[in-house]
């Protein structure tokens, strides 16, 4: 985001945010002064300093289908990235660490189309990430694939669903109408945490499988007596027999 003349007292978030202005290049960025676990609360979008706005500007964040928020603070210096470090959870007015957590010194970024439907000032993203989406103009101009894998606010899911319904109607393709996305009606924070849980469950499952096959292969090298003793133990560990198996 281009530097702007702040009308608030700076720094507005001295304990958590370091704003770096490059006067030669007319650019700015923000670095974190804190470390947080995944989905930890970084900052609140509070009233004040936030005020409501009825249309998007370079200084607003969209919080509902037709509601925007003037941040009126240094939080405005948080740049876009296609692989962001932060989540702007606009339904709960929370700014959260992303799924990988946040480290002190890391650049503070969020994925603008996660809250913005149609941006006042589109731009070509130069984040340089392998998953860079290129032109960033808001979620309205992005495909489902381009938004995949990123945390997206509920109002954007709703607007995407309305647009899909409209597109289906226009193409006379009513029979292939896209089924209502469950995410559109669910609290996005709950959804993000559910995704994190699903991921954690997969890690546990993979570790169990690895342990199981390790014990199996280690067992095959031993004599019959120890292998038969090891057998039930490994099945028990992998959960096949429940936790209450009594070994003879
Ligand atoms: Zn990018």
From TrEMBL:
SUPFAM superfamilies: SET domain. Residues 121-137 form the Post-SET domain. It comes from the Eukaryota. Keywords: Methyltransferase, Transferase. The keyword Oxidoreductase does not apply. Transmembrane segments: none annotated. One of its GO terms (molecular function) is methyltransferase activity. Coiled coil: none annotated. Residues 221-248 are annotated as: Disordered. This is Post-SET domain-containing protein.
């Amino acid at each position: 985001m281009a530097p702007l003349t702040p009308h608030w007292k700076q720094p507005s978030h001295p304990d958590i945010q370091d704003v770096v202005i490059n006067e030669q290049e007319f650019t700015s960025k923000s670095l974190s002064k804190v470390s947080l676990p995944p989905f930890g609360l970084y900052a609140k979008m509070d009233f004040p300093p936030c005020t409501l706005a009825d249309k998007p500007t370079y200084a607003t964040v969209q919080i509902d289908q037709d509601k925007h928020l003037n941040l009126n603070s240094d939080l405005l210096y948080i740049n876009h990235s296609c692989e962001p470090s932060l989540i702007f959870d606009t339904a709960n007015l929370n700014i959260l660490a992303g799924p990988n957590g946040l480290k002190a010194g890391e650049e503070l970024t969020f994925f603008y189309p996660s809250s913005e439907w149609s941006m006042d000032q589109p731009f070509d993203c130069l984040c340089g990430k392998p998953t860079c989406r290129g032109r960033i103009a808001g979620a309205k101009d992005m495909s489902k694939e381009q938004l995949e894998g990123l945390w997206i606010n509920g109002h954007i899911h709703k607007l995407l669903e309305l647009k899909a319904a409209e597109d289906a109607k226009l193409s006379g393709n009513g029979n292939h109408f896209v089924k209502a996305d469950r995410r559109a009606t669910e609290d996005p924070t709950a959804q993000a945490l559910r995704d994190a849980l699903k991921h954690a469950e997969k890690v546990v499952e993979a570790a169990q499988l690895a342990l199981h096959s390790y014990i199996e292969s280690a067992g095959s090298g031993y004599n019959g007596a120890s292998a038969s003793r090891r057998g039930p133990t490994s099945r028990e560990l992998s959960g096949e027999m429940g936790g209450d198996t009594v070994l003879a």
